[in-house]
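During the reporting period the student researcher (J.K.) took over the structure-prediction task from the postdoctoral fellow and processed the backlog of single-chain submissions. One of the processed entries is reproduced below for the supervisory committee.
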Amino acid sequence: MDAQNEIKRLTEELNKHNHAYYVLDEPTITDFEYDAMMRELIALEEANPELRRPDSPTQRVGGEAVSGFAQVRHDIPLESLTDVFSPEELSGFLEKTTPLLTLPEYTVEPKIDGLSMALIYENGVFVKGATRGDGTVGEDVTENLKTIRSIPLSIEDAPERLIVRGEVYMPRRSFEELNARRELTGEKLFANPRNAAAGTMRQLDPKIVAERKLDILIFNVQYTSGEAFKTHAESLEYLKSKKFKVIPYTLVRSANECLARVDDIGNSRDSYEYSIDGAVIKANSLADRASLGSTAKAPRWAVAFKYPPEKKETVVKDIVIQVGRTGVLTPKAVFDPVRLAGTTVSFATLHNQDIIDALDVRIGDTVLVQKAGEIIPEVLSVNLAKRPNDSVPYKIPDVCPVCGSAVTRDEDGAAIRCTGAECPAQQLRNIVHFASKNAMDIEGLGEGVVKNLIDSGLISSSADIYSLEAEKIAKLEKMGAKSAEKLIAAIERSKAAGMARVLYALGIRQVGEAAAKLLARNFPNIDALSAATKEELTALADIGDTTADYIISWFAAPQSQHLLGRLKDAGVSMDAVNDAVDSRFEGKTFVLTGTLEKYTRDEAAAIIERYGGKAASSVSKKTYCVVAGENAGSKLTKAQELGVMVISEAEFDELIK
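J.K. obtained the following structure tokens:
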């Protein structure tokens, strides 16, 4: 087999299928067939790395993490647009501009609420992508953009140099999936798709970007060295022919047509896969654009019409409490259905007791509601003139509505949480955390398998893991006898994980890995810890009053004791495992940065802890030492600024010999 020709064939075939799936939304082969071809290409490229093509689809999974983003000066400035906020303002723009046009027509496009980017192609190959920045200078995010599958990595019959401009966005489905995962792991949720897209593009690790499934729509040719276009519409059709995913547009030839199209886009906002916050109106003739020019801030030939949020009154019928995967009790106002931004809504999140108190919203109230960012329903205010005489202030209950356990308010926030260790509302998140790598390290028991086990009725709490049977697991979808046997073996191994891992796995508030290891070094077993007083706990370094209170209240809860009892009966060790070598690093904090050759960061951190030290994630004046590997980034810079000792991996090896 000719490896070069086969790599070329597979690359071109996979890119063709990528375009059909991600741009045309018309898949031409099954996922199984696509994955088989991709595996074949990966194997060929690994065997022949010198033959890997720059447009290979294997580049889209995310390359190596970078230490920062380099600055890029835009050849053609990425201008912003003047905003108009009413039909009258838009009519004024059209009346002023149309007489100056030799071709009196405009394009009308939805205005995506995303991040503007410039993509640069040289001889048909995508070589660089940059954020808008201030319009003149942006940041190089090429590797992150390569993970967006609708961006062609190469184009045929291309000019020597082509620069296009587009808007990166997070599709609504991707946004919902991302927030669901973050809720499961207890991370802060993104407020809206634009914030999520912005946070994603700022990631230094392209692999994370690839997981979040961003997309892009191209809306302009910034520069081309070999093509001459007369109109904007003509340039967009050219981009379509080059397999770019292009913004949908409508050509209009009168003010009435323009206003009608802007109105149509506004009325169908909910039908787009992306968030929009307006419509963009542009003169179609490129010669007219050149003639009109730009002000210091924006072009004179285009405006952005911004849609006002719809606001309507409705009546609150009830306030219900939902318990999230992290145990947070979230109040929701249920009201008479109203239509907003193209969809019917019948409830809005009230977030927490502080918001309820600030609004003074009560059951029976008439409230004003809108969709925040055209997406999320929210209560704006209460019409006190319409309040019923018998209304009473609403208070979130002091017990969990799902499991009946006591609730507690976060010391550092407004969230109210269920304290139940076996609360059904939290079962998926709790079990996934319990089995995770840094907790009980049960290989093969990820979120998908846990959900499968819960849905099939085989488990409902972490303790149930230890009563699983291989025969029943093997019957589940996507499992089988071999996978089931491996999972049972991993479960059996986890019984000897030791007290520190068990403590972390239990998910006690503010007891992370470091605190769990500290507690396991100072108490012989979990029974001794459960009997500890607040004074004994706070006598330990890094255990403050709040953490001590959380530990004591967790062990005092009946559900916690029931869970511990079941884990003990299953044979899970509750004793401390002392793997310390000596205490040479006692009281010293290390920070790891860059890529180490001999160790992963987890392995290096474990070594530091076995010598009595602590591995931290950020540099401060209290840091004893920074271990710097290859491509060390901002942590190394911070250490140098603070005068913290910096050593190489070889010097670290000398310390632990």
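The committee noted the following: The chain has five domains: 3-61, 71-306, 311-386, 424-569, 589-656.
J.K. will present the remaining backlog at the next meeting.
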